């Protein structure tokens, strides 16, 4: 093939190379779009790529300077957060020491924050006796005898890093009933007390048994009562099954289930009951049928007034300690 005259000389060949490079650049530029732009990197001044700080740390970038990681690294010689040791010297109002002129560690002086402002900075300063707790400004530090599930405790005042082991192998936050729990993650010697609550809907309004929510065993019958602050009341009397109480027990309360019944009093004072008619399904999903036990369940259905007017109870639920 005969070369084009423009490329036959040395100058021409140089121009050809420049032309090819230019053409290549134009071609590559034309191929770039939203799907294949050059990826993010460790020099873009953006926190990405799993970086710990901007453009450092993570799986791709160089490690971050320990003097800029906003953490106190005493093993690296730091006196306080990112200062002292091999880092820049600490300012006297930020060195973890009670200096002259400060009323508390790093607070209460000219140019210092107010001591109460330090109760959430993750450091032990101000008047704190523990990290962000204790002293005159912060909440009390968790203890193993305060009757509260706090700190690293797995049960009230037991377990975790500082308290004695719990009496049972239990976890009050794991979503299952274990150890000596009365129900799921509540009750017993280690967890918060189980709540006693009952709620239902009637005529599109939700009611809560805030005024009274109780369950008790009387003569073999389970009696449940809920009274709302607005005066609406719901109640059930359910006899013990022939084979004893068990989880998953379901019964239809209606006139044929006597003496078992469901009853309801509206906020207007109208009285309804399955003794007059209607049909209410009552279900127990969990029960420990002893005094001090616990019962959880649901109810839905209709109850009737003496005049024959019916009303509906829906989405009813209860979780009650048994008296």
Give a written overview of the molecule.
The protein is mostly beta strands. Among the domains are: 142-192, no CATH class; 197-321, no CATH class. The protein contains one helix and eleven strands; from the N terminus they run αβββββββββββ. The strands form two sheets. It has a six-stranded antiparallel sheet, with no helix packed on it. A five-stranded antiparallel sheet has the order 3-4-5-7-8, with no helix packed on it. The model is unreliable at 1-39 (pLDDT under 50).
Q: Roughly what percent helix?
A: under 10%
Largest sheet: 6 strands, antiparallel
Number of strands: 11
**Strand order of the biggest β-sheet:** 2-1-11-10-9-6
Fraction of residues in β-strands: 15-25%
Q: Which structural category fits the helices and strands?
A: mainly beta
N-to-C SSE string, H for helix and E for strand: HEEEEEEEEEEE
Instruction: Determine the number of helices (DSSP H or I, runs of at least 4 residues).
Output: 1
Rg from Cα: 36 Å
Poorly predicted runs of 5 or more residues:
1-39
Through-space gap between termini: 105 Å
CA-based shape: elongated
Summarize the structure.
With 323 residues, this protein is mainly beta. The chain has one helix spanning 10-31, and strands at residues 197-202, 205-208, 212-218, 221-227, 233-239, 249-253, 261-265, 271-273, 280-287, 294-304, 310-321.
């Amino acid at each position: 093939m005969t070369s084009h005259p423009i490329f036959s000389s040395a100058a021409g060949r140089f121009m050809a190379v420049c032309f090819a490079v230019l053409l290549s650049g134009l071609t590559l530029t034309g191929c770039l779009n939203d799907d294949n732009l050059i990826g993010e990197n460790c020099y873009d001044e953006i926190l990405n790529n799993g970086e710990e700080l901007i453009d450092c740390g993570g799986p791709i970038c160089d490690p971050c300077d320990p003097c800029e990681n906003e953490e106190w690294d005493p093993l690296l010689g730091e006196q306080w957060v990112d200062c002292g040791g091999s880092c820049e010297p600490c300012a006297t109002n930020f060195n973890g020491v009670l200096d002259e002129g400060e009323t508390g560690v790093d607070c209460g002086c000219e140019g210092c924050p107010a001591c109460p402002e330090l109760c959430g900075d993750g450091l032990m300063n101000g008047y704190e006796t523990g990290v962000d707790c204790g002293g005159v400004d912060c909440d009390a530090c968790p203890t193993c005898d305060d009757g509260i599930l706090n700190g690293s405790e797995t049960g009230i005042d037991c377990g975790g890093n500082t308290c004695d082991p719990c009496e049972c192998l239990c976890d009050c936050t794991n979503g299952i009933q274990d150890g000596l729990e009365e129900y799921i993650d509540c009750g017993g010697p280690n967890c918060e007390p189980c709540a006693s609550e009952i709620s239902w809907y009637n005529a599109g309004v939700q009611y809560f048994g805030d005024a009274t929510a109780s369950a008790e065993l009387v003569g073999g019958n389970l009696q449940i009562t809920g009274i709302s602050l607005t005066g609406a009341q719901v109640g059930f009397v359910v006899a013990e099954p022939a084979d004893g109480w068990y989880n998953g027990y379901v019964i239809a309360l209606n006139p044929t289930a006597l003496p078992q019944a469901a009853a309801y009093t509206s906020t207007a004072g109208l009285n309804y009951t399955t003794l007059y008619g209607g049909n209410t399904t009552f279900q127990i999903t969990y029960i420990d049928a002893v005094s001090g036990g616990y019962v959880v369940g649901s109810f839905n259905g209709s109850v009737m007034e003496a005049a024959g007017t019916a009303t509906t109870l829906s989405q009813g639920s209860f979780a009650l300690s048994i008296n």
